Amino acid sequence: MYQRILVPVDNSDTSAAAIVEGRRFARDQKAKVKLIHVVDLAQFAWSANEFLDVPQLQNALRQSGEKLLAELAEGLRTDDLDVETGLLESWGGNLASAIVNEASSWSADLIVMGTHGYGGLTHLLMGSVAEGVVHATPVPVLLVRAKANDK
């Protein structure tokens, strides 16, 4: 039985699908949910570019993440779920490690996260945060893919 479900979120369709599954598990098992969003503060600090205000951009990332977490948490609370949120900061793109560390420190019983399911060259070039989490954590991980759009 899962009592503490960690759900990493962003603005993607796969993240939305993971929230649906996380909500279902939490409702069925009366579990606590923690939504987390990881911001990579190094993404704008790659150079001393005089055209960008790096601290301002980093602050905008934080604010955007906090807004996303607040909106998603409110949606889960309408189902009377016990929800926490956490904004995590990463430096240099190791998002999987940030998620695994949070799962450990929060004592998560389950991680529910979206995956794009890329294969081939795209996977080779982009890597996979979900794959990194699966390989690094002892916590069970439920990977959820968004339904393909019918065209």
Portion in beta strands: 15-25%
How many helices does DSSP assign? 5
The strands making up the biggest β-sheet line up spatially as 3-2-1-4-5
Integer count of domains: 1
Sketch the major β-sheet. Answer: 5 strands, parallel
CATH homology group: HUPs
Note poorly predicted spans. 122-126
- The chain-level mean pLDDT equals 87
- Helix fraction, binned, reads 40-55%
Shape annotation: globular
How far apart are the first and last residues' alpha carbons, in Å?
39 Å
Please give the number of β-strands: 5
Which H/E pattern describes the elements? EHEHEHEHHE
Backbone CA Rg: 16 Å
**Based on the structure given, which CATH architecture is correct?**
3-Layer(aba) Sandwich
Oligomer: single chain
Regarding CATH, which class? Alpha Beta
The class by helix and strand makeup works out as: alpha/beta
The CATH topology assignment is Rossmann fold
Architecture blueprint of SSEs:
Blueprint: E1 4-8, H1 13-29, E2 32-40, H2 54-77, E3 82-90, H3 95-106, E4 110-114, H4 120-126, H5 129-136, E5 141-144
Parallel strand pairs: 1-2, 1-4, 2-3, 4-5
Helix pairs in contact: 3-5
Protein name: Universal stress protein
Subcellular location: Cytoplasm
Main location: cytoplasm
Care to describe what's here?
- The chain is of the alpha/beta class and 151 residues long.
- It has a single domain, classed as HUPs (Rossmann fold, 3-Layer(aba) Sandwich), CATH 3.40.50.
- The chain is built from 5 helices and 5 strands.
- The protein has helices at 13-29, 54-77, 95-106, 120-126, 129-136; strands at residues 4-8, 32-40, 82-90, 110-114, 141-144.
- A 5-stranded parallel sheet has the order 3-2-1-4-5, with helices on both faces.
- Strand 1, helix 1 and strand 2 form a beta-alpha-beta unit.
- Helix 3 (95-106) packs across helix 5 (129-136).
- The chain is globular.
- Mean pLDDT is 87; it is low at 122-126.
